[in-house]
């Protein structure tokens, strides 16, 4: 299930509020980051998964915050606190808070004894990364992969601030910086795993100091579950 960063604000314990967005929180690379692999399917089913993309999910979360603050008449002066009645107003008017996208994916090949990562990518295409085919998927038609099964995992990236507040990519402002972090995270993962179908190498940037904890919640396999990636 996709992460809804604003859900605690309008439905729960307020652990994540617009302060996490408007407070201009920055990832603390010494604190690390998480990648939650939420769903996994056979590769041929990749285009049936609604991954979303960072551009739309970033703007949807921003719009929800702005409209919710207008409805409840809250702002930074009162720490965006909502009472039960105000939460009900927001949910009635706006519905459930928006989700984060699945912004990273891993393609693997496997048999009865082993599973191997062959491609790391980011779901940043506004038209859908898998709708019209995917270069890595085409490469998997090579005879060397004929006897292997193919699978794809979709995940969400979450950073931590120095005070251990959760910072999904959708809460990093401006959007340009959020997108840069996504590109650098992809570059860090490619540098670490060196998947055989990734031919493009990007600049790791600030991520070279980052430790990433990968957890697999897919219930399909334990691939990379509780796996640590250390900055290069």
Describe this structure in words.
By secondary structure, this protein is an alpha+beta fold. The protein has one domain. The protein has six helices and seven strands; from the N terminus they run ααβααββαββαββ. Strands 1, 2, 3, 4, 5, 6 and 7 form a seven-stranded mixed sheet that branches. Helix 3 (54-72) packs across helix 4 (84-94). It is elongated, with a radius of gyration of 19 Å. It starts with 6 loop residues before the first helix and ends with a strand.
Taken together, the total number of domains comes to 1
Q: Helix fraction?
A: 25-40%
**Over all CA atoms, what is the radius of gyration?**
19 Å
Q: Give the helix tally.
A: 6
Taking the sheet with the most strands, its summary is: 7 strands, mixed
Low-pLDDT residue spans:
none
Shape: elongated
Structural class from helices and strands? alpha+beta
Content of β-strand: 15-25%
| Element-level helix/strand string | HHEHHEEHEEHEE
- Taking the alpha carbons of the first and last residues, their distance comes to 31 Å
Q: How many β strands by DSSP?
A: 7
Tell me, rounded to a whole number, the average pLDDT. 88
């Amino acid at each position: 299930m996709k992460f809804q960063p604003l859900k605690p604000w309008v439905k729960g314990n307020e652990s994540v509020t617009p302060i996490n967005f408007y407070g201009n929180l920055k990832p603390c690379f010494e604190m690390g980051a998480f990648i939650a692999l939420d769903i996994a399917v056979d590769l041929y089913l990749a285009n049936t998964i609604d991954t979303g993309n960072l551009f739309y999910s970033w703007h949807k979360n921003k719009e929800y915050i702005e409209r919710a603050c207008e409805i409840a008449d809250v702002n930074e002066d009162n720490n965006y606190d909502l009472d039960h009645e105000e939460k009900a107003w927001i949910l009635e008017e706006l519905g459930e808070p928006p989700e984060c996208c699945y912004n990273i994916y891993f393609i693997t090949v496997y048999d009865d004894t082993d599973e191997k990562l062959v491609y790391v990518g980011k779901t940043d295409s506004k038209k859908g990364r898998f709708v019209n085919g995917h270069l890595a998927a085409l490469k998997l038609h090579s005879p060397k992969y004929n006897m292997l099964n193919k699978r794809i995992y979709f995940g969400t990236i979450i950073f931590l601030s120095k005070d251990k507040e959760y910072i999904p990519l959708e809460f990093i402002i401006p959007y340009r910086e959020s997108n840069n972090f996504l590109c650098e995270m992809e570059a860090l993962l490619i540098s670490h795993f060196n998947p055989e179908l990734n031919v493009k190498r990007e600049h790791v940037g600030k991520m070279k100091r980052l430790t990433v904890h990968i957890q697999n919640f897919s219930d399909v396999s334990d691939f990379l579950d509780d796996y640590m990636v250390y900055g290069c």
